[in-house]
Protein backbone atom coordinates (compact mmCIF):
# COMPACT_ATOMS: atom_id res chain seq x y z
CA UNK A 1 0.00 0.00 0.00
CA UNK A 2 2.87 2.37 0.84
CA UNK A 3 4.30 1.60 -2.60
CA UNK A 4 1.08 2.88 -4.14
CA UNK A 5 1.14 6.09 -2.12
CA UNK A 6 4.75 6.85 -3.03
CA UNK A 7 4.25 6.15 -6.72
CA UNK A 8 1.06 8.24 -6.91
CA UNK A 9 2.82 11.16 -5.24
CA UNK A 10 5.79 10.83 -7.62
CA UNK A 11 3.52 10.84 -10.68
CA UNK A 12 1.62 13.85 -9.35
CA UNK A 13 4.78 15.83 -8.61
CA UNK A 14 6.41 15.10 -11.99
CA UNK A 15 3.29 16.25 -13.85
CA UNK A 16 2.50 19.40 -11.79
CA UNK A 17 -0.41 17.88 -9.87
CA UNK A 18 -1.04 17.77 -6.12
CA UNK A 19 -2.92 15.13 -4.16
CA UNK A 20 -4.82 16.93 -1.41
CA UNK A 21 -5.30 15.58 2.08
CA UNK A 22 -8.82 14.42 1.25
CA UNK A 23 -7.60 12.60 -1.87
CA UNK A 24 -8.72 15.27 -4.34
CA UNK A 25 -6.55 15.72 -7.44
CA UNK A 26 -5.42 19.32 -7.99
CA UNK A 27 -4.12 20.30 -11.45
CA UNK A 28 -1.51 23.05 -11.03
CA UNK A 29 -1.28 23.52 -14.80
CA UNK A 30 1.68 23.74 -17.17
CA UNK A 31 2.95 27.03 -18.54
CA UNK A 32 3.58 28.11 -22.12
CA UNK A 33 1.54 25.53 -24.03
CA UNK A 34 1.45 26.42 -27.75
CA UNK A 35 -2.02 27.33 -29.03
CA UNK A 36 -2.16 24.41 -31.48
CA UNK A 37 -1.26 21.93 -28.72
CA UNK A 38 -3.69 23.03 -26.04
CA UNK A 39 -6.43 20.55 -26.90
CA UNK A 40 -4.07 17.59 -26.84
CA UNK A 41 -2.36 18.79 -23.67
CA UNK A 42 -5.75 19.22 -21.98
CA UNK A 43 -6.72 15.67 -22.99
CA UNK A 44 -3.43 14.30 -21.69
CA UNK A 45 -3.76 16.13 -18.38
CA UNK A 46 -7.27 14.81 -18.05
CA UNK A 47 -5.90 11.31 -18.53
CA UNK A 48 -3.25 11.86 -15.86
CA UNK A 49 -5.84 13.25 -13.45
CA UNK A 50 -8.02 10.16 -13.96
CA UNK A 51 -5.01 7.90 -13.44
CA UNK A 52 -4.17 9.66 -10.17
CA UNK A 53 -7.79 9.39 -9.07
CA UNK A 54 -7.72 5.65 -9.79
CA UNK A 55 -4.51 5.29 -7.80
CA UNK A 56 -5.97 7.10 -4.80
CA UNK A 57 -9.08 4.91 -4.95
CA UNK A 58 -6.95 1.76 -5.15
CA UNK A 59 -4.85 2.78 -2.15
CA UNK A 60 -8.07 3.34 -0.18
CA UNK A 61 -9.45 0.00 -1.36
CA UNK A 62 -6.32 -1.79 -0.17
CA UNK A 63 -6.32 0.16 3.10
CA UNK A 64 -9.86 -1.08 3.71
CA UNK A 65 -8.73 -4.62 2.96
CA UNK A 66 -5.84 -4.34 5.43
CA UNK A 67 -8.19 -2.91 8.04
CA UNK A 68 -10.63 -5.80 7.57
CA UNK A 69 -7.79 -8.33 7.84
CA UNK A 70 -6.53 -6.67 11.02
CA UNK A 71 -10.00 -6.78 12.55
CA UNK A 72 -10.19 -10.50 11.76
CA UNK A 73 -6.87 -11.08 13.54
CA UNK A 74 -7.95 -9.03 16.55
CA UNK A 75 -11.22 -10.94 16.75
CA UNK A 76 -9.25 -14.19 16.96
CA UNK A 77 -6.99 -12.75 19.63
CA UNK A 78 -9.96 -11.51 21.63
CA UNK A 79 -11.47 -14.97 21.45
CA UNK A 80 -8.36 -16.36 23.11
CA UNK A 81 -6.82 -17.95 20.04
CA UNK A 82 -3.38 -16.50 20.68
CA UNK A 83 0.02 -18.11 20.49
CA UNK A 84 1.87 -17.13 23.66
CA UNK A 85 5.29 -15.51 23.56
CA UNK A 86 7.00 -18.47 25.22
CA UNK A 87 5.04 -21.08 23.31
CA UNK A 88 4.33 -22.69 26.70
CA UNK A 89 1.97 -20.50 28.65
CA UNK A 90 -1.29 -19.23 27.20
CA UNK A 91 -1.75 -17.06 30.26
CA UNK A 92 1.15 -14.82 29.22
CA UNK A 93 0.89 -13.25 25.80
CA UNK A 94 2.58 -10.35 24.07
CA UNK A 95 2.37 -8.21 20.98
CA UNK A 96 4.84 -10.55 19.30
CA UNK A 97 2.61 -13.45 20.21
CA UNK A 98 -0.36 -11.66 18.72
CA UNK A 99 1.64 -11.21 15.56
CA UNK A 100 2.38 -14.90 15.49
CA UNK A 101 -1.28 -15.60 15.94
CA UNK A 102 -2.20 -13.35 13.07
CA UNK A 103 0.37 -14.90 10.79
CA UNK A 104 -0.78 -18.39 11.65
CA UNK A 105 -4.51 -17.90 11.63
CA UNK A 106 -5.43 -14.93 9.52
CA UNK A 107 -2.56 -13.71 7.36
CA UNK A 108 -3.41 -10.52 5.45
CA UNK A 109 -4.97 -11.34 2.09
CA UNK A 110 -3.77 -10.01 -1.26
CA UNK A 111 -6.31 -7.76 -2.91
CA UNK A 112 -7.71 -9.43 -6.05
CA UNK A 113 -7.24 -7.53 -9.30
CA UNK A 114 -9.79 -5.15 -10.78
CA UNK A 115 -12.29 -6.45 -13.33
CA UNK A 116 -10.92 -7.94 -16.54
CA UNK A 117 -12.11 -4.93 -18.55
CA UNK A 118 -10.79 -2.34 -16.06
CA UNK A 119 -8.96 0.70 -17.36
CA UNK A 120 -5.16 0.32 -17.50
CA UNK A 121 -4.84 3.06 -14.88
CA UNK A 122 -6.86 0.95 -12.40
CA UNK A 123 -4.65 -2.06 -13.10
CA UNK A 124 -1.55 0.09 -12.62
CA UNK A 125 -2.88 1.42 -9.33
CA UNK A 126 -3.65 -2.09 -8.05
CA UNK A 127 -0.19 -3.37 -8.97
CA UNK A 128 1.62 -0.33 -7.58
CA UNK A 129 -0.08 -0.68 -4.19
CA UNK A 130 1.10 -4.27 -3.72
CA UNK A 131 4.37 -5.10 -1.99
CA UNK A 132 7.19 -6.74 -3.96
CA UNK A 133 6.51 -9.99 -2.10
CA UNK A 134 2.82 -9.89 -3.04
CA UNK A 135 3.64 -9.21 -6.68
CA UNK A 136 6.04 -12.13 -6.89
CA UNK A 137 3.47 -14.36 -5.20
CA UNK A 138 0.84 -13.43 -7.79
CA UNK A 139 3.25 -13.92 -10.69
CA UNK A 140 4.04 -17.41 -9.39
CA UNK A 141 0.52 -18.47 -8.40
CA UNK A 142 -1.74 -16.51 -10.78
CA UNK A 143 0.24 -15.62 -13.93
CA UNK A 144 -3.07 -15.39 -15.79
CA UNK A 145 -4.03 -12.42 -13.58
CA UNK A 146 -0.85 -10.57 -14.49
CA UNK A 147 0.55 -11.35 -17.92
CA UNK A 148 -2.08 -9.80 -20.17
CA UNK A 149 -3.23 -7.03 -17.84
CA UNK A 150 -2.55 -3.63 -19.42
CA UNK A 151 -1.11 -1.23 -16.87
CA UNK A 152 1.23 -3.70 -15.16
CA UNK A 153 4.98 -3.26 -15.58
CA UNK A 154 6.41 -5.00 -18.64
CA UNK A 155 9.05 -6.90 -16.68
CA UNK A 156 6.41 -8.39 -14.39
CA UNK A 157 4.11 -9.20 -17.30
CA UNK A 158 6.99 -10.97 -19.00
CA UNK A 159 7.75 -13.15 -15.97
CA UNK A 160 4.10 -14.11 -15.70
CA UNK A 161 3.74 -14.80 -19.41
CA UNK A 162 6.85 -16.98 -19.55
CA UNK A 163 5.26 -19.10 -16.83
CA UNK A 164 1.93 -19.00 -18.65
CA UNK A 165 3.55 -20.28 -21.87
CA UNK A 166 4.78 -23.39 -20.07
CA UNK A 167 1.36 -23.94 -18.48
CA UNK A 168 -0.36 -23.55 -21.86
CA UNK A 169 2.08 -25.98 -23.48
CA UNK A 170 1.25 -28.65 -20.93
CA UNK A 171 -2.47 -28.02 -21.26
CA UNK A 172 -2.57 -28.10 -25.08
CA UNK A 173 -0.24 -31.12 -25.25
CA UNK A 174 -2.62 -33.03 -22.98
CA UNK A 175 -5.60 -31.87 -25.07
CA UNK A 176 -3.91 -32.95 -28.30
CA UNK A 177 -3.17 -36.41 -26.87
CA UNK A 178 -6.79 -36.72 -25.78
CA UNK A 179 -8.12 -35.69 -29.19
CA UNK A 180 -5.87 -38.15 -30.99
CA UNK A 181 -6.81 -40.99 -28.64
CA UNK A 182 -10.52 -40.28 -28.93
CA UNK A 183 -10.58 -39.66 -32.66
CA UNK A 184 -11.08 -35.89 -32.50
CA UNK A 185 -12.02 -33.96 -35.60
CA UNK A 186 -9.34 -32.66 -37.94
CA UNK A 187 -10.31 -29.03 -37.33
CA UNK A 188 -10.04 -29.46 -33.55
CA UNK A 189 -6.65 -31.12 -33.87
CA UNK A 190 -5.43 -28.43 -36.28
CA UNK A 191 -6.51 -25.70 -33.86
CA UNK A 192 -4.58 -27.24 -30.96
CA UNK A 193 -1.55 -27.90 -33.16
CA UNK A 194 -1.54 -24.25 -34.24
CA UNK A 195 -1.45 -23.15 -30.63
CA UNK A 196 1.40 -25.48 -29.76
CA UNK A 197 3.37 -24.19 -32.74
CA UNK A 198 2.71 -20.62 -31.62
CA UNK A 199 3.84 -21.37 -28.06
CA UNK A 200 7.02 -22.99 -29.38
CA UNK A 201 7.60 -19.96 -31.59
CA UNK A 202 7.17 -17.61 -28.63
CA UNK A 203 9.67 -19.65 -26.60
CA UNK A 204 12.10 -19.48 -29.50
CA UNK A 205 11.80 -15.71 -29.75
CA UNK A 206 12.29 -15.28 -26.00
CA UNK A 207 15.37 -17.51 -25.73
CA UNK A 208 18.87 -17.52 -27.18
CA UNK A 209 20.05 -20.43 -29.37
CA UNK A 210 21.76 -21.97 -26.32
CA UNK A 211 18.44 -22.06 -24.47
CA UNK A 212 19.14 -19.18 -22.11
CA UNK A 213 16.55 -16.44 -21.68
CA UNK A 214 17.22 -13.40 -23.90
CA UNK A 215 17.60 -10.51 -21.43
CA UNK A 216 16.82 -7.95 -24.15
CA UNK A 217 13.27 -9.24 -24.68
CA UNK A 218 10.02 -8.95 -22.76
CA UNK A 219 6.90 -11.05 -23.37
CA UNK A 220 4.12 -8.53 -22.87
CA UNK A 221 1.13 -10.64 -23.84
CA UNK A 222 0.14 -14.20 -24.69
CA UNK A 223 -3.39 -14.98 -25.85
CA UNK A 224 -4.38 -18.40 -27.17
CA UNK A 225 -8.10 -17.55 -27.45
CA UNK A 226 -9.96 -16.53 -30.59
CA UNK A 227 -9.37 -17.76 -34.12
CA UNK A 228 -5.58 -17.50 -33.96
CA UNK A 229 -2.88 -17.12 -31.27
CA UNK A 230 -1.79 -13.60 -30.37
CA UNK A 231 1.28 -12.16 -28.62
CA UNK A 232 3.37 -9.04 -28.02
CA UNK A 233 7.17 -9.18 -27.73
CA UNK A 234 9.47 -6.29 -26.88
CA UNK A 235 13.12 -5.62 -27.62
CA UNK A 236 14.61 -3.57 -24.77
CA UNK A 237 13.11 -2.52 -21.44
CA UNK A 238 9.67 -0.99 -21.92
CA UNK A 239 9.57 0.09 -18.26
CA UNK A 240 12.68 2.28 -18.42
CA UNK A 241 13.42 3.16 -22.06
CA UNK A 242 13.32 6.85 -22.92
CA UNK A 243 11.80 6.05 -26.32
CA UNK A 244 9.16 3.33 -26.75
CA UNK A 245 7.47 2.24 -29.95
CA UNK A 246 4.67 -0.23 -30.62
CA UNK A 247 4.59 -1.80 -34.09
CA UNK A 248 1.39 -3.38 -35.41
CA UNK A 249 1.90 -5.66 -38.45
CA UNK A 250 -0.73 -6.24 -41.09
CA UNK A 251 -2.54 -8.99 -42.94
CA UNK A 252 -1.14 -12.52 -43.03
CA UNK A 253 0.73 -11.92 -39.76
CA UNK A 254 0.89 -14.94 -37.44
CA UNK A 255 2.69 -15.72 -34.20
CA UNK A 256 4.03 -19.04 -35.46
CA UNK A 257 4.83 -17.74 -38.95
CA UNK A 258 6.34 -14.33 -39.58
CA UNK A 259 6.32 -12.74 -36.11
CA UNK A 260 9.93 -13.80 -35.61
CA UNK A 261 10.91 -11.71 -38.63
CA UNK A 262 8.97 -8.71 -37.36
CA UNK A 263 10.63 -8.92 -33.94
CA UNK A 264 14.04 -9.08 -35.62
CA UNK A 265 13.13 -6.10 -37.81
CA UNK A 266 12.12 -4.11 -34.73
CA UNK A 267 15.41 -5.10 -33.11
CA UNK A 268 17.06 -3.49 -36.13
CA UNK A 269 14.95 -0.34 -35.76
CA UNK A 270 15.90 -0.19 -32.07
CA UNK A 271 19.61 -0.42 -32.90
CA UNK A 272 19.40 2.20 -35.66
CA UNK A 273 17.50 4.59 -33.39
CA UNK A 274 20.02 4.14 -30.58
CA UNK A 275 22.90 4.82 -33.01
CA UNK A 276 21.23 8.10 -33.93
CA UNK A 277 20.74 8.97 -30.27
CA UNK A 278 24.40 8.20 -29.55
CA UNK A 279 25.38 11.17 -31.73
CA UNK A 280 23.39 13.42 -29.37
CA UNK A 281 24.62 12.05 -26.06
CA UNK A 282 22.78 8.75 -26.01
CA UNK A 283 19.35 7.37 -25.18
CA UNK A 284 17.54 4.07 -24.75
CA UNK A 285 14.88 2.58 -27.04
CA UNK A 286 12.39 -0.27 -26.67
CA UNK A 287 10.36 -1.63 -29.58
CA UNK A 288 7.26 -3.82 -29.20
CA UNK A 289 5.84 -6.04 -31.93
CA UNK A 290 2.13 -6.30 -31.17
CA UNK A 291 -0.05 -8.96 -32.78
CA UNK A 292 -2.90 -8.53 -30.33
CA UNK A 293 -5.69 -8.64 -32.91
CA UNK A 294 -6.83 -11.03 -35.64
CA UNK A 295 -5.06 -9.96 -38.86
CA UNK A 296 -6.86 -10.84 -42.07
CA UNK A 297 -5.36 -13.26 -44.55
CA UNK A 298 -5.73 -13.80 -48.28
CA UNK A 299 -7.83 -16.86 -47.49
CA UNK A 300 -10.48 -14.78 -45.72
CA UNK A 301 -11.91 -12.85 -48.67
CA UNK A 302 -11.90 -12.97 -52.42
CA UNK A 303 -10.35 -9.57 -53.17
CA UNK A 304 -7.46 -7.55 -51.77
CA UNK A 305 -9.62 -4.52 -50.95
CA UNK A 306 -12.12 -6.74 -49.13
CA UNK A 307 -9.55 -8.36 -46.85
CA UNK A 308 -9.87 -6.01 -43.92
CA UNK A 309 -13.14 -6.27 -42.04
CA UNK A 310 -14.67 -3.68 -39.76
CA UNK A 311 -14.84 -6.14 -36.90
CA UNK A 312 -11.19 -7.15 -36.65
CA UNK A 313 -9.90 -3.63 -37.34
CA UNK A 314 -12.16 -1.92 -34.82
CA UNK A 315 -11.70 -4.55 -32.11
CA UNK A 316 -7.98 -4.46 -32.76
CA UNK A 317 -7.93 -0.67 -32.53
CA UNK A 318 -9.72 -0.73 -29.18
CA UNK A 319 -7.31 -3.33 -27.81
CA UNK A 320 -4.25 -1.49 -29.10
CA UNK A 321 -5.39 1.76 -27.48
CA UNK A 322 -5.59 0.01 -24.11
CA UNK A 323 -2.23 -1.65 -24.64
CA UNK A 324 -0.61 1.72 -25.36
CA UNK A 325 -2.36 3.35 -22.40
CA UNK A 326 -1.10 0.53 -20.23
CA UNK A 327 2.54 1.19 -21.10
CA UNK A 328 2.25 4.78 -19.90
CA UNK A 329 0.14 3.88 -16.86
CA UNK A 330 2.75 1.36 -15.69
CA UNK A 331 5.52 3.97 -15.65
CA UNK A 332 6.05 6.88 -13.24
CA UNK A 333 7.17 9.00 -16.20
CA UNK A 334 5.90 8.75 -19.77
CA UNK A 335 8.40 7.92 -22.52
CA UNK A 336 8.59 9.47 -25.96
CA UNK A 337 6.07 7.13 -27.58
CA UNK A 338 5.79 6.21 -31.27
CA UNK A 339 3.09 4.10 -32.92
CA UNK A 340 4.06 2.20 -36.09
CA UNK A 341 1.56 0.49 -38.38
CA UNK A 342 2.09 -1.49 -41.58
CA UNK A 343 -0.65 -2.45 -44.04
CA UNK A 344 -3.76 -3.52 -42.12
CA UNK A 345 -1.82 -2.67 -38.97
CA UNK A 346 -1.90 0.99 -40.02
CA UNK A 347 -5.71 0.90 -39.99
CA UNK A 348 -5.71 -0.69 -36.53
CA UNK A 349 -3.14 1.91 -35.40
CA UNK A 350 -5.23 4.75 -36.83
CA UNK A 351 -8.38 3.55 -35.07
CA UNK A 352 -6.47 3.20 -31.79
CA UNK A 353 -5.26 6.79 -32.03
CA UNK A 354 -8.76 8.21 -32.45
CA UNK A 355 -9.40 7.14 -28.84
CA UNK A 356 -7.10 9.76 -27.40
CA UNK A 357 -5.23 9.37 -24.15
CA UNK A 358 -2.88 6.75 -25.62
CA UNK A 359 0.20 8.82 -24.82
CA UNK A 360 1.44 8.45 -28.41
CA UNK A 361 3.63 11.36 -29.49
CA UNK A 362 4.40 10.27 -33.08
CA UNK A 363 2.72 7.93 -35.55
CA UNK A 364 4.27 6.39 -38.67
CA UNK A 365 2.27 4.31 -41.14
CA UNK A 366 3.83 2.53 -44.09
CA UNK A 367 2.40 0.38 -46.84
CA UNK A 368 -0.91 1.84 -45.69
CA UNK A 369 -4.30 1.51 -47.40
CA UNK A 370 -5.68 4.12 -44.99
CA UNK A 371 -5.97 4.90 -41.30
CA UNK A 372 -9.74 4.78 -40.78
CA UNK A 373 -12.59 2.33 -41.12
CA UNK A 374 -15.25 4.16 -43.07
CA UNK A 375 -16.01 5.24 -46.60
CA UNK A 376 -15.15 8.78 -47.55
CA UNK A 377 -12.14 11.05 -47.79
CA UNK A 378 -12.91 13.56 -45.06
CA UNK A 379 -10.59 12.31 -42.31
CA UNK A 380 -7.30 14.10 -41.63
CA UNK A 381 -4.16 13.48 -39.59
CA UNK A 382 -5.71 15.65 -36.87
CA UNK A 383 -8.19 12.82 -36.17
CA UNK A 384 -5.29 10.66 -34.97
CA UNK A 385 -4.88 12.81 -31.85
CA UNK A 386 -1.13 13.13 -32.02
CA UNK A 387 0.60 16.53 -31.99
CA UNK A 388 0.33 18.49 -35.23
CA UNK A 389 3.05 17.57 -37.71
CA UNK A 390 3.82 14.29 -35.93
CA UNK A 391 1.91 11.89 -38.20
CA UNK A 392 3.99 10.39 -41.04
CA UNK A 393 3.38 8.20 -44.08
CA UNK A 394 5.86 6.19 -46.15
CA UNK A 395 4.92 4.72 -49.53
CA UNK A 396 7.35 2.61 -51.55
CA UNK A 397 7.32 2.18 -55.33
CA UNK A 398 5.68 -1.04 -56.41
CA UNK A 399 3.46 -1.31 -53.33
CA UNK A 400 -0.09 -1.98 -54.54
CA UNK A 401 -1.62 -1.78 -51.06
CA UNK A 402 -0.26 1.74 -50.52
CA UNK A 403 -0.81 2.90 -54.10
CA UNK A 404 -4.18 1.75 -55.38
CA UNK A 405 -6.16 0.44 -52.38
CA UNK A 406 -6.44 4.01 -50.94
CA UNK A 407 -8.17 5.02 -54.16
CA UNK A 408 -11.16 2.86 -53.14
CA UNK A 409 -11.72 5.28 -50.21
CA UNK A 410 -12.61 2.19 -48.17
CA UNK A 411 -10.25 3.18 -45.38
CA UNK A 412 -10.61 6.94 -45.39
CA UNK A 413 -8.46 9.50 -47.15
CA UNK A 414 -5.36 8.27 -48.97
CA UNK A 415 -2.43 8.59 -46.53
CA UNK A 416 -0.21 9.90 -49.34
CA UNK A 417 -2.59 12.86 -49.83
CA UNK A 418 -4.05 13.27 -46.35
CA UNK A 419 -4.22 16.74 -44.86
CA UNK A 420 -1.68 17.08 -42.04
CA UNK A 421 0.22 13.88 -42.89
CA UNK A 422 3.97 14.39 -43.42
CA UNK A 423 5.32 12.33 -46.31
CA UNK A 424 8.67 10.56 -45.88
CA UNK A 425 10.81 8.92 -48.55
CA UNK A 426 11.30 5.25 -49.34
CA UNK A 427 13.62 5.94 -52.29
CA UNK A 428 17.40 5.74 -52.44
CA UNK A 429 19.01 8.64 -50.56
CA UNK A 430 21.99 9.74 -48.52
CA UNK A 431 21.82 10.29 -44.77
CA UNK A 432 22.95 13.50 -43.14
CA UNK A 433 26.23 11.79 -42.21
CA UNK A 434 26.86 10.76 -45.81
CA UNK A 435 25.71 7.15 -45.37
CA UNK A 436 24.05 5.73 -48.49
CA UNK A 437 20.52 4.47 -47.95
CA UNK A 438 18.85 1.96 -50.26
CA UNK A 439 15.38 2.18 -51.75
CA UNK A 440 12.54 -0.03 -50.55
CA UNK A 441 10.35 -1.66 -53.16
CA UNK A 442 6.98 -3.37 -52.87
CA UNK A 443 4.93 -4.00 -49.77
CA UNK A 444 7.35 -5.78 -47.45
CA UNK A 445 10.72 -4.01 -47.38
CA UNK A 446 10.01 -0.95 -45.24
CA UNK A 447 11.89 -2.13 -42.14
CA UNK A 448 14.44 -4.34 -43.90
CA UNK A 449 18.11 -4.28 -42.94
CA UNK A 450 20.39 -5.00 -45.91
CA UNK A 451 22.79 -8.00 -45.83
CA UNK A 452 25.74 -5.67 -45.23
CA UNK A 453 24.00 -4.23 -42.17
CA UNK A 454 23.04 -0.91 -43.76
CA UNK A 455 19.55 0.57 -43.73
CA UNK A 456 16.97 1.35 -46.34
CA UNK A 457 15.72 4.94 -46.44
CA UNK A 458 12.35 3.88 -45.07
CA UNK A 459 13.91 2.07 -42.11
CA UNK A 460 16.19 5.06 -41.49
CA UNK A 461 13.17 7.36 -41.46
CA UNK A 462 11.22 5.12 -39.08
CA UNK A 463 14.21 4.95 -36.72
CA UNK A 464 14.62 8.74 -36.81
CA UNK A 465 11.01 9.25 -35.67
CA UNK A 466 11.33 6.52 -33.03
CA UNK A 467 14.44 8.28 -31.69
CA UNK A 468 12.61 11.60 -31.52
CA UNK A 469 14.97 13.04 -34.15
CA UNK A 470 12.68 13.97 -37.06
CA UNK A 471 15.31 16.38 -38.36
CA UNK A 472 17.22 13.32 -39.63
CA UNK A 473 14.24 12.00 -41.60
CA UNK A 474 14.33 12.31 -45.38
CA UNK A 475 11.16 13.81 -46.86
CA UNK A 476 9.46 12.37 -49.92
CA UNK A 477 10.22 14.15 -53.16
Contiguous uncertain segments of 5+ residues: 82-107
Share of helix, binned: 40-55%
Note the gap between the termini: 56 Å
Following the backbone from N to C, one meets helices and strands in this order, namely HEEHHHHHHHEEEHEHEHEEHEEEH
Number of strands: 12
Can you give a write-up of this model?
The protein has 477 residues and is α/β, with parallel strands linked by helices. 42% of the residues lie in helices and 12% in strands. The chain is built from 13 helices and 12 strands. It has helices at residues 2-14, 38-78, 95-105, 120-129, 132-141, 143-146, 154-181, 186-206, 259-278, 310-329, 344-353, 400-403, 457-466; strands at 17-19, 25-27, 217-223, 230-235, 243-248, 285-291, 336-342, 362-366, 391-394, 422-424, 429-430, 436-437. It has an 8-stranded mixed beta sheet with strand order 3-4-6-5-7-8-9-10, with helices on both faces. A hairpin with a 6-residue loop joins strand 3 (217-223) and strand 4. Helix 4 (120-129) packs parallel to helix 10 (310-329). The model is unreliable at 82-107 (pLDDT under 50).
Describe the protein's topology.
Blueprint: H1 2-14, E1 17-19, E2 25-27, H2 38-78, H3 95-105, H4 120-129, H5 132-141, H6 143-146, H7 154-181, H8 186-206, E3 217-223, E4 230-235, E5 243-248, H9 259-278, E6 285-291, H10 310-329, E7 336-342, H11 344-353, E8 362-366, E9 391-394, H12 400-403, E10 422-424, E11 429-430, E12 436-437, H13 457-466
Parallel strand pairs: 5-6, 5-7, 7-8, 8-9, 9-10
Antiparallel strand pairs: 1-2, 3-4, 4-6, 11-12
Amino acid sequence: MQNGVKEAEAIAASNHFTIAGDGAIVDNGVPDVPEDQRELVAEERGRIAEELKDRVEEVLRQATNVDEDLCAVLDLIQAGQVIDATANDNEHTSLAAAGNSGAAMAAPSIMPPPAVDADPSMNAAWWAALSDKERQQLIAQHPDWVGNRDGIKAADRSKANLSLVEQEKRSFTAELDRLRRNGGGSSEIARVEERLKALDAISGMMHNPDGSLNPNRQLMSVDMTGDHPKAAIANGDVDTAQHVTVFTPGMNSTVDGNMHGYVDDMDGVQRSAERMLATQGGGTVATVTWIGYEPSSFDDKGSLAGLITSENANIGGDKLAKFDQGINAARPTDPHFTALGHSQGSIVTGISLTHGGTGVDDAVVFGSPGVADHFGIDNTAHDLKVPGGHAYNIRADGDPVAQWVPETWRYGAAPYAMDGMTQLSAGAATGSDGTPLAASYGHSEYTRTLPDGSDTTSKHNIAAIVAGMPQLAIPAR
